[in-house]
Design a protein that fits this description.
5 strands, alpha+beta, 2 domains, three-stranded mixed beta sheet, two-stranded antiparallel sheet
């Protein structure tokens, strides 16, 4: 499901939002685009500081929040800390394991086609929707049984 990194889109979006394309921002975006999960700011900080040892956690965190604000990435919904980020902007949904904390992407056309109730559309300007399921993943279920 993960799309290949497109630094052209990254650069264009940064310029469109009056953000300089710095080596640090590029490294953060590149690391996030390589992520196979939904990394936290701390996980991103640990990865990026290999290339930029003097980068601060605050810089990484603020950059991720900025990327989310301008639509380069998504902030993963949820009530847990730390915040998690999703580099995959394609249409998909999430399963949150309440045991191990993993967030698993899945696609389902039935969920993609859910109709927004007209009562909500009168109250809100809905720009996107995503289904979030919570439960216990297969790996955790096996551990509980075994």
């Amino acid at each position: 499901m993960q799309k290949e990194i497109d630094l052209g889109v990254f650069s264009k979006e940064c310029r469109r939002h009056n953000l300089r394309v710095t080596p640090q921002r590029t490294a953060i975006f590149r690391e996030l685009a390589k992520a196979k999960s939904h990394p936290s700011a701390d996980e991103m900080f640990q990865a990026v500081r290999k290339e930029f040892p003097n980068i601060s956690y605050d810089t990484v965190n603020r950059t991720l929040l900025t990327f989310s604000r301008i639509g380069l990435i998504n902030l993963v919904e949820g009530h847990t800390t730390p915040r998690r980020f999703d580099p995959d902007l394609s249409s998909h949904h999430h399963f949150h394991c309440q045991q191990c904390g993993r967030i698993i992407d899945f696609c389902n056309s039935d969920f993609d086609d859910l109709k927004i109730p007209s009562s909500l559309l009168r109250e809100f300007d809905v720009t996107s929707s995503r289904v979030v399921l919570r439960g216990i993943c297969k790996a955790c279920s096996r551990k509980r049984i075994g």
